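Ticket closed. Logging final result for PAP2 superfamily protein.
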Amino acid sequence: MKILAKIISETLHPLLMPFYGILMMFFYSYLFIFPTIYKLFILGGVLLFTCLIPALSILLLYKTGKIKTLGLNHREDRPLPYAICFLSYIFCGIYLFRAGLPLWVTAYVIGGLLAIITAAIVNTRWKISAHMTGIGGVLGAAFALATIQMIFPMHLFTGLILAAGLLGTSRVGLGCHTVMQVIAGTANGFIWVYLCMILSVAFKII
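Final structure:
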């Protein structure tokens, strides 16, 4: 069971969540009409800024002894990786904005950035789940898309809720988090992303 939990944790790693979120938008919004080459260009940039650069940075920190585990299982390991992710998300947001995508797409990344800041602050006192913050953000984006477009693809919500449940169970089963840390992480990601995307459409402030 622990092997399965580790597979789920790696497949639904927080560094992959921005990529999954943008991919979801290309399938479940009017962005699906964009040319394939353009979508690949955007997805490649998102993967670079929010996954590859942070992952390589974390590996370097581990190799140089700055952090104890690659999985950032210790609360004291997280400040530097959070700072790197913070900068990476800023560059990703700029990249998406300059690519001419709708403001609510950039708002998705801004919501993720605010969730990272919140997690970093909470992490000084308590260990919140970064994995659940990530998937909570994708859930928030899905519900925001449904609200904006008034289209509710039930298979998408069912799949995401099931994935979140499996991930949360895996994190608790591996001893990485408590149930409350899992719930707090999910709420953190969901609330920030949902609010940013909705506000970007309602008031054009993002």
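The CA atoms of residues 45 and 95 lie 8 Å apart. No further action required.
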